[in-house]
């Protein structure tokens, strides 16, 4: 049974930092690209960042570029999202997801429906 478990969310002031983690089990982690998405109240789920299976390529939404950094540790079956210079508009539930395709590109990783597995999400709240 595949499980993705997010952690590290919480309440932080604007300008602060958080580090989200997502630990995977039940799959061959090193063969999956991993992504982070978020969903704010009343809004659709949106792409945040993604990383290829080997960590050779990373992808970011324009709204987070330069502030958020995705990384992974295949030995620990874990993907991370380092979040710096947080803004109130970053407030959302953050989900990690696993994607297995023969070819990963910037279009594929931004498409939520292409992902095979999802975590339950972790709440991030940024106060002004």
Describe the structure.
This protein is globular. It is built from no helices and 11 strands. It is mostly beta strands and 128 residues long.
Average predicted local confidence, pLDDT:
96
Helical stretch count?
A: 0
Which structural class should the secondary elements be placed in?
A: mainly beta
How would a textbook summarize the main sheet? 7 strands, mixed
Low-confidence stretches: none
Strand-residue fraction? over 45%
SSE order in H/E notation? EEEEEEEEEEE
Could you give a short description of this structure?
By secondary structure, this protein is mostly beta strands. Helix content is 0%, strand content 48%.
What labels would you give this structure?
mainly beta, 4-stranded antiparallel sheet, 7-stranded mixed sheet, 128 residues
